[in-house]
Fold each of these.
Amino acid sequence: MVNQNPASQSSNAIVRAIHRHYSDTNYIRSDQTIEREKFLLFNIPFNRWAMFPTAFIFQAICGSLYAWSVFNDPIDSHIYGSITNPTTGKSTPVAHNAPVTFYIAVGCFGLSAALNGPWLERHGPKLAAIIGATVFFLGNMVAAIGIYTRIIALLYFGYGVLGGAGLGLCYISPVSALQKWFPDRRGLAAGFAVCGFGAGSIILAKIPQPLTAAVGLPLTFVVLGCAYFAAMLVCAFVFRVPPPNFQVNGMDMYRNRVDKSGDPESNSTEKAVQDYKDPNAKMPLSTAIFSKEYRIMYIMFFGNSIAGLVFLSRLANIIKDIFAKDEATAATIVAINGGFNLGGRLFFSTVSDRLGRKNSFFVMLLSQVVILASLPTIMEKRVYWAFLLVIWILTACYGGGFGCIPAFLCDMFGPSNIGALHGIILTAWSLAGVGGGLLFTEIYNHLLASGFTIKDPNVYSTNLRWVLGVACVGFLFLLFVGTHIHDRLLPRVKGEFARLRVFGRLVRIGSFGVRFLSKDDEDKEWDAYEEKRRAEDQAAAPRTAPEVGYS
């Protein structure tokens, strides 16, 4: 059915502007630009595989955000001073305000990705990457000034607002381009791009400490900012989207099979029906954003992200406080955990090309639910090896969500919308990080004030209850993501409000209860639907390519 969005007819200029922004994703290039982008440098032909290493490096720099915790104590000590324990000789900052920078950056990261996604699709990944890198560079410079002048607000604005906004635009730029270049390997392309983000948190976390010792804390941000900016600019000039006639392994950018002439294969009336029932059709962005499937996927992704953001971020403290390990052991475990984050992004996204995106999320979310339910017992009994085992699996599933989601969105809504949809869904990650982090901290501090100690597992297991609840909600919503075309387009029957598939059979849920549809009945309904749409096409002819819409 065709969705009519009343926003386009609104008398409010702001509403109309927002509608236009999220409706137009056409990237118009001149013939000269298309010809120029056939070459990487001088007369060296461009090869799509060149995007892999450059996207990895680009995302690794974006992943430096995850290494922010190494700056917390040095910044707080520099701005507010520190107290030295005469027994241990260890210095402790007087105040602990630097971690707020990370939460601001995460919030601006998601907001920037959501707002700039349509703009990215209209202007291409190269320009988006250059602008994002420039804003991130400026953020580092302002942060350096804030640290030098000991003004925490400048640090918040520099690294938090500018840095986070720049990284949000940078993050989605290579992911969007890779999904268009690799219709035959969407999962692998998405996973390889975003696993760089995980790698950055491991590699770049080792640089600030020796650099600070050599040049001082303010100049550390100047040196890193300049180095990041130079590397990101080099990578950005490799980013581009395929030419209009692009095809690979017998398919075009939309995964339509093409004949030897490069035209999509057609079969008269059947192709006419396929044009509007194919989930990879050129769906308007506004239609995709307001579709039921996208809303469900947003909640699903939120559920997959919550544990990794609010629980795993405190892994070092848990290792030291609950299991009585030393600082060096905790640091080693956190580094290994980062490797599982990276590996999960690449493993699950690659496997999803064979297993399917929904099935991959099924495995990841179900694993998280089981692990979160068992963690309180493991921590209470202090079974260290079991804790490490389940935490590393949990981390791999958390990372796998980031690896699979771009390809999942591309499968569901087409490559033309991937930049915007990926950007918007990242706000679920931001909400989980900011809102979940603040809630976790509030409950944690309340329990400590109530008499619990940091070595009591209850300060974590109490929080795990609501984290488990959110993960369960994400898992339940996943079941209702309609990846089968029948699930998405078959008209709803009277009283129906939800549907899902159980072992391949369509299940309707409504005021009539739960109703399983036989394969024969489903085929009959689909045949009737096709016949009705074919008749509507003939009655409306001549007609341009119809919009795909979902109720």
Amino acid sequence: MKRAILFFTFLLGTVALTMADSRPELAVSKINKKLFTNANAIIREASKTIEVINPDKMEVTETFVVTILNDKAEKALLYNVAYYDSNSKVNDMEAYLYDKWGTEIDKARNKDISDEAIDDGFSVAVDTRVRYVSFDHNAYPYTLEFKSVVTEYNSFSWPTWRPLTFDNVAVEKSSFAISFPEEMNVTYKEYLEALGEYDFDESPGQLSWSIQNKTAYVDEPLGPSLRNQLPRVAVNLGKISYDGNDGDLSTWAGFGAFYYSLNKNRDQVPESLKQEVLALTAGASSKTEKIKILYNYLQNNTRYVSVQLGIGGLQCFPAEYVAEKGFGDCKALSNYMKALLKLVDIPSNYVLIQADRKPMTLDKSFPQDPFNHVILGVPMEKDTVWLECTSQQIPMGYIGVNNMNRQVLWIEADGKSKLVRTPGYVPEDHALVTTAQFDVQEDGGATVAANIQGTGFQQRRFRGLKGLSSEELKRFFEGYIPISTTFALNDYSVTVEEDRPETSLSYKVDAKKVAKVSSSRMFLSPGLLEPALHSPKRLEDRKHPLVLQVGFHDVSEYTFTLPAGYEVEAMPKDQNIATPYGAYETSYSFDNNKLVFKRKYTRNSGEWESEKYNDYVDFVKQVVRADKDKIVLKKAE
């Protein structure tokens, strides 16, 4: 039975909430028929009202009503996922379940609603809790309604209205209102170009927006981040208070100053650790060498866990805590590394970052907080060393594909925090270089010896192999080797470069039917070790830009030693395709029973207008077709 789980996390005052046993206006038949187009769920009403009483107190009232059309609508069920903690109080909550006619089937009030601590499986200390109600129901369509009233005892908040939050969810009615003392410097920024018509009202101390009857947004492959595509309104409260700490969020510099103030003077370490660090770095001849020594020390002596107590979402635990416990979250570990560097007179900076594959574009003129991670930046004479402090494996200076080439908030003292960008990479930085020798037998079987070298993100999955047992490593190779026929694994090894994002694999196998033999002919697919490429579908009415987030570069060279007497009967033409999105090149040569196949495939990163999407699809299709080319060999009579 499908279980519809509704999570609540709310922050506001006391209100009496009453509802009738039947809501005929919620009958599915009342919905505008155009809203069913591309919809798995339809939001009947989503209203959120925020009352900022003062910098230390806010009240939030929410109503959310959604009609679930099918079992693909889980996203709509999680519309109000949120949490409360020691700085907030849930005052009232209730939820109702209706059938397709709007008749009440079930309900839950405060005493019926579960209240549990969050157990995410890796946090060792958490004071965040979740409230939720679960209804067992799978007779589609049905409607869910819930309301909440919550008080939040701080104003560190980034109120945002997202009337279209998910793809394939239509909206019948949505509204957002915020009231605040007139003396507060509240500002807002609209990103509503994709929304069409909407209502807006502004008066002293009050702002409100609303929409009606918006069809479902349909996501498209290889598009921008949903957070960039979907319309939203961002509100900035200006001067705020959080757990007794005051700040001004009206500028990026102010936001950074607030974060800096929360985390300054938390870099003290035990005297014994100080002496250990000084001894470790005593022989280092350069700043870079000292950073490397201390980064290795961090990796060898700490591990990542989430610690979320009090203002743990913003403030790091002291360096002494990490020194004692040996663990911390991204903030605590970055602060600990910062403290280690300070001991040898190397300054460094916190960096707030979106660790996502598709980060939201930041508005330089309007601060927001999409950040979910912290790394460290170490200024050098000509460059910056970026340190990902939560990984025990990656080399110094490599921060991974989910941190690269994006806007970040560089935290400085004295109000000098600013937006900067982490390093980007060219496709050749993410290379996979494969060489293989095939000793092909008369029956089409072959002994294969291969070597694969990966760099950048293409070495990521291999780096973790270092600690595996021999049996675990064998199972990995047996699953990784892309030979589709039966093979016996004879030898295998992994080499991980400690100081660079590079790894290499080697293996030897005896494989059956690498080539298909029929009478006097042999049919061979020279690219049989290449991972299968899949072409996206063409879209004739593409709405959004084409975004290729990460570029890469694949280089392969395969040498086939064939049985004596075979000659080429048919061989594909060499390929040389160049496009703005990438390039593909192949070459074939045959001499003295040796066939050599060379392949290069480069995919660029970038963003192109929507009209270019099908050009990219056509390019990938050309590559897919060429990768399937076969060579026909005939044995001389």
Amino acid sequence: MIARLTTHLMAFAAVGTATLARAQEVAAETDEGGRSGGFDIKGALDAVEAYAVPWAMKIIGALVALFVGWLIAGWVGRKVRKVVERRNLDATLGNFFANIIRYLILVAVVLGVLGVFGIETSSFAAVIGAAGLAIGLAFQGTLSNFAAGVMLLVFRPFKVGDYVEIAGESGTVVQIELFHTELKTPDAKMKIVPNSKVWGDAITNYNTHAQRRVDVAVGVDYSADCDTVRAIFDEVVKNVEGGLTDPEPKVFLKELGGSSVDWVLRVWVNTPDFWAVHERLVRDAKKALDEAGIGIPFPQMDVHLDDAALEAFRGRSA
């Protein structure tokens, strides 16, 4: 298309040059002063050659430059979108970068064309720079959210469908926009979190890995035999529905608590099964202890009073 347009424009210029040459021959054939009927044909042709032709060529060149620049801008925009798609980045980010680059190319072409016509483009650049500075100051918070949104879309610490905890909020990611991130909480509330807050805070992604670890703490009575309790819990973690055998499930004696001997049951599961297995593990542990006659004590505190304190207490009660 560009080659055809260039050929037509060159042919048009050649015709114009030939026509001008013929007009000059006609002017030479008139009277010695180059006048015909009182009109200075030669002077008029000289004026056309000196002013009209150069300006016509500049206009044609400007139109060609604008057309070619428009084609190049569109081509570059499409290439940018393809690169973004190949890198599995968000389509919103691809469209944004493609449009930015396209408009920058068009602005550069327009400024170049204005320079060809002798128009001082530095003033336009200054105006554009001042406008950009003013917009940046006025929308500082918005631009901060935008920059953070670009970083999130490029580095992708989480994706739509992941369960995350960010900026003190937790929920399933519904949408990642350039200015904010939408979370759906477990109780079906929608949380809109500004991207600057998301990027500037710690992000916990519970779906990054295919497997997660389930830890359940269980306290048993001090009177229970530790070896017996361990054997019971070993059977529970090995047989819980949804638990994985690799990594191997384990049982730990964590500590001697204030009211109970505290154990930890640890099982690895596939990430989507986390809460279901957690519930089964708690249920199976309680059931196994009940069947073995081992109690789970309530929190309790022994208070000892000496004789003087006891007498003072009785005196206030009387």
Amino acid sequence: MIFKLTYFYEPIMKKVSNILTRKGSSVIAIDGSTTVLDALKLMADKNIGSVVITEDGVYAGLLTERDYARKVILHGKSSLETQVREIMSTGFPRILPDNSIETCMHIMSESNLRYLPVFKEDRLCGIISISDVVTETILSHEETIEQLKSYIQS
């Protein structure tokens, strides 16, 4: 008996570049000397949970809502007087546009991170959040379901 293969499904490995294409790769950045209050106002205005911090125009770290809660509020600091460079998070793993979504999910879960900077060569080209990763995973699963439905109906 010979079977003719009429359909072959191979899952597509989604990459960070898919997220950046979907949501855009623009990055909101501020100088390290900016006050925490001004950074928070910007984050609220742009409806974002993190902002890139630069020193002399070069990526230095990220300021997140978590940084504010843990390093300003809990320590009784003034958001009017504290500069973002004093509380920003540094040392994030650097990911590439070609990294898989699964890799990012693993890094974020293992390191308890909500944001990851994306670099192409040595240039920051985007920021992805855990929400971006979850959304892309859901979209990928929906795509798989549609492909399987199409296969079943053919």
